[in-house]
Amino acid sequence: MPYLSRLIEGYRRFREQDWARERERWSELSEGQSPQVMILSCADSRVDPAQIFDARPGEMFVVRNIAALAPPYETTRGFHGVSAALEFAVTQLQVGEILVMGHGLCGGCAAALTGQFDDTEPGEGHFIADWVRMLAPARDHVRAHHQDLDREAFLEMEREAVKVSLANLRSFPWIAERERDGRLMLHGAHFSIAEGRLYMLDEAEGDFRPV
Questions:
Q1: pLDDT averaged over the chain?
Q2: How far is 4 from 65, CA to CA, in rounded Å?
Q3: What is the Cα–Cα distance from 155 to 113, expressed in whole angstroms?
Q4: CB neighbours (10 Å) of residue 117?
Q5: Residues sharing a CB contact under 8 Å with residue 167, sequence separation 6 or more, in sequence order
Q6: Which helix (DSSP H) or strand (DSSP E) does residue 175 occupy?
Q7: What pLDDT, on a 0 to 100 scale, did the predictor assign at position 1?
Q8: What is the C-alpha end-to-end distance of the chain, expressed in Å?
Q9: pLDDT, tens digit (0-9, with 9 covering 90-100), for 62-120
């Protein structure tokens, strides 16, 4: 049976249960959206922000990609999907907070740390390698402190990636300006799949603390 059939079954349950229960909410959302927070999360199937934060429809503006990465600010013409989403959330929806949420067992961070897809051709990992190359300085830092790429090295890589994304977010002038004047707050987090636990980044200390 094609997996689409299971998706349709899920949709029917949604219509009968969730949509019916939130019908008034969906009616409000048909007029537009006004989320207060943007979540930048990994595309990994195990870390759905709406599920982790038990969010209602319309509460969060979510962008997901490999390793939950925010690219640095660039003005070259091109297809800047994540940057466009950031611009829309911040300048049009005027969200008040952005949360970058990395996670445990992240394949994108592992690829950056090990160089698994380096020197590959398109269709074999080329796009993945190019994308996670923005983690190169963090990778070098982690490798310098972990001669053996053990579990602690991968965990540190995942958390360093969150810090890289936060730094890149602050390279966008309209994000930096709003953070300075208090209209926007940036947060970092790491979700442990094995524990089902969220760790929030204390940027002053540079540590992740369990919620």
A1: 97
A2: 22
A3: 11
A4: 19
A5: none
A6: helix 173-180
A7: 66
A8: 41
A9: 999 999 999 999 999 999 999 999 999 999 999 999 999 999 999 999 999 999 999 99
pLDDT reported for residue 147: 87
Rounded Cα–Cα distance for residues 185 and 144 (Å): 32
Calpha distance 78→159 (Å, rounded)? 29
CB neighbours of 151 closer than 8 A, spacing ≥ 6? Answer: none
E strands present in 49-194: 60-65, 97-103, 185-192
Average pLDDT on 5-31 reads 95
Residue reference for tokens 């005027």: 94
What's phi and psi for 138, nearest 5 deg? -65, -40
The residue among 145, 144, 118 whose CA lies nearest residue 132 is: 118
Distance CA 208, CA 190 (A): 8
3-state secondary structure of 117: coil
Q: How far apart are CA 99 and CA 190, in angstroms?
A: 10
φ, ψ of residue 192 to 5 degrees: the values are -90, 110
The reported pTM is: 0.95
pLDDT at 64: 98
Locate 134 and state its tokens: 């923005």
With the C-alpha atoms ordered 42, 141, 200, 88, is the resulting torsion angle positive or negative? Answer: negative
